[in-house]
Each structure stands twice: as C-alpha cells, then as structure tokens.
Design a protein that fits this description.
21 strands; nine-stranded mixed β-sheet; 24% helix; nucleotide-binding; damaged DNA binding; single chain; 3 domains; 10 helices; zinc ion binding; Ribosomal Protein S5, domain 2; alpha/beta; Rossmann fold
Amino acid sequence: MAKKATTSYRCAECGIEVAKWVGRCPECQAWGTIEERGEGRPALARVAAGAPSAPARPIAQVDIETSRARQTGVSELDRVLGGGLVPGVVVLLAGEPGVGKSTLLLEVAYQWAAGADSAALYVTGEESAGQVRLRAERTGNVHERMFLAAESDLSAVLGHVDDVKPGLLIVDSVQTMTSPQAEGAPGGVTQVRAVAAGLVALAKERGLPVVLVGHVTKDGSVAGPRVLEHLVDVVLQFEGDRHSTLRMVRGVKNRFGAADEIGCFELRDDGIVGVPDPSGLFLNRHTEAVAGTAVTVTVEGKRPLLCEVQALVGDSALPQPRRAVSGLDSARVSMVLAVLEKRADTQFKGKDVYTATVGGMKVTEPAVDLAVALAVRSACEDVALSPRLVAIGEVGLAGEVRRVTGVGRRLAEAVRLGFTHALVPPDPGPLPDGIKTLEVSDLSRALYAVQYVPMD
C-alpha cells in the first residue's frame, strides 16, 4: 500500500500530536501551543520484529538485589524517596528560586561522597564553579570525593561522567542544559525534552542515580514540557516561604515508594538540616487560651502533623466584606462558612473573615473542616476553646461530620504532644489510650460539646 503523508500538529507544552490545528491543546489545556510539524508520519506503517536485547524471564526470577535503594545520608529526603536512591533512578527536584534546592543537593552530594565508596559529580549550568565552592565552604559541604563542573552542554556532561565515573550525578538545572542533537534555545521545549531523554538514557544504561533541578512557573508547576515529568521516575516539589526557615520536600510522583510523603527541613545560615519532629513548628504555645484558634491533626503521606487554625472575624467597612485565606483551601473555607450560617445560626453579613494556618503550613485535606468551623465560631463569639482539644472531621453541606482516614494515628500524635480531648466523627475505629474522645455526628453537636471541655 502506498504511504500517505499528512500534515501533523504538536503541542509545544505536552508533546501530544493532533490531526488539525486547534487554539487550545486537548491534553494540557494550554492556549496557543499547537505548532505545525509539516509532513507527519505515514498513514500506515509496519514494524518488523527484531532480536530482543535480553530474553524475557518469569518475574519471580528477576534479580532485585542490584536495584535496592541506597540511602543518601539525608534522612528526611530518604523518607520522601522511599528509602533512598535506586540505581538508575532519575529524580526531578523542582522549586521556586531561592528556596534552597542547590543547598539541599550540595548536602546530598557531600553525604554521598562521605558515606559511599563512589564519587558524587555536581554539574552546574547556572553558576560558576567558584560560586558553588563558596557556598559549599559556607555550609561545610566539601569532600575530596565531591567533583564539580560548570557545564551547559550535554556532551561535555557525558564526558565528565566518563572521566569521573561517579556514583551520583546532580545536574543544576535541566533548563540550562543544551543538546547538540536538538534545536532551539536553552530552556525551550525541544531542548528540555532532548536533554532529559539523554540523561534518562544515561541513568538506565549505567545504573547511575541522576538528580535534576527543575525551574517552576509562576503558578508553581514544573517549567517546560509536561513530558519531562513523564520521563523521570521521581518528581519532588521543594516548597517554602521566603520569610520562614521551614522547607518541605513533597513527593508528587514516585515509582519506588509513596507519592504523597513529605520531608521537613530548616534552612539556616550554615546549611540545611532535617526536622524529624515538625509538629511543634505548626503550633503556637499561648500562655493563655485565645479566641479564634483550634488545633487539628493532618496527615501528609504517613506522617501525622498537628496544625493550628486561626480565625479572625470583625466588622467590615467595605461594601463587599473580605474573605482572606492563608494556608487553607479557599473553596472549602467558603463552604464551611456557608454551613455555619445555614446550620449553626452564625451570621457573617457585614463582617470580614480571615483564616490562616501557623508556620506557613498548607493544608488542603477535608479533615481540617471541623477545626476551621470551631475557630471561626470561637472568633465570632470571642470565646476561647480549650488548649488541650483537637478537632478532626470533614463537614458536609448538610452540617454532618464525616469520617476521615487514620483517626487513631492522628490521635496518637496528639497524645504524644499532651492533648487530652478530641472531637472525632462517629465510628472512628480503634483509638489510643490517654485521650478522651467525643464523637459528634453534626456541626451543632460539635459546637455544643466544646463548651464542656475543661480549659486546663
């Protein structure tokens, strides 16, 4: 059959091909990214069978000892990775400028060089070798098995890998690298795709763990084509407030472990250190009870974290009262306010409502709904809740308090930090000793029950 060539179009963001030009990509929903590729693939193509590189074996006979994870020496990062770096893994670490990505990876390179029998190669395309050396001196991350190269060409990077033969390769960053086999400026879609594909092939061929630094856009997503996240094995998001020393590494994708784990770090002048017990960072220890505060327990991955929710309600001088939210899901907060008005006779007409978390923590899970409702009601009535009380539960539109997962694990963390009473949904399952639980089926019963929780 004769081959029929057709014109094809490809999205510059995600790489999907479509038969005709459209203004909006049907895959990633980006506008104006569909580009004409000229002559496309033939309408009918057949691939001849070839010789396999290795015979297929039963899965039970595949050796897994060579694919065991190796610890990096940074315990909080190992928690997110699922135990460490697997040979041949490609990790993408993305974060805003100045959040501490390079500082963290210098610590990883130092710990690897100090604790392993192989070298660590750090390739920087954004700074000179002298600038990186100054930062390493300041943070105390200098070791004889740490090698540093300032390169922006992928071919030169591969040459350094052949010379050094490292056990760990760090590339800072993938957007600054260029491949001679691809056209376009550094950071462009074509270049990023080609560089990432080349580094992934290098990692798989040699069993070399590779860590890539990635830039983010103004909305917090990874810059570059979406195919970059598909190519790598692990995607980590490095988060943190510029005005706070707390930093979090959040797993977004992980082929070798849980994809929702977090690691907590503290950024200091002399480097970055892990925080194995971060619950106290998200609580304010008041000398006396304060109206408008409530404590809940959220779960990030497998880690329960206590979080304090604060609310402030006051008269508004504006025709449209303000609803400000920080660290919480604004849509869920609006829903909780509507439920309070309809089901709990709480009026917000002509009042500004501010809600926030403590310590820069971001909480989006529904289990925080009950604490938000209690904090807002406490601020409205100017009556403080017991400082020994935690509230856990999702609030529905009918005012009911719904069950959430892991109530026992959450309360065990609350007991460890000295809390004595808890409001929980009905049928919470096995609960730990040392805490008195009050099961509430709806929001009205929860607001009634908090009146009888002792203040001390």
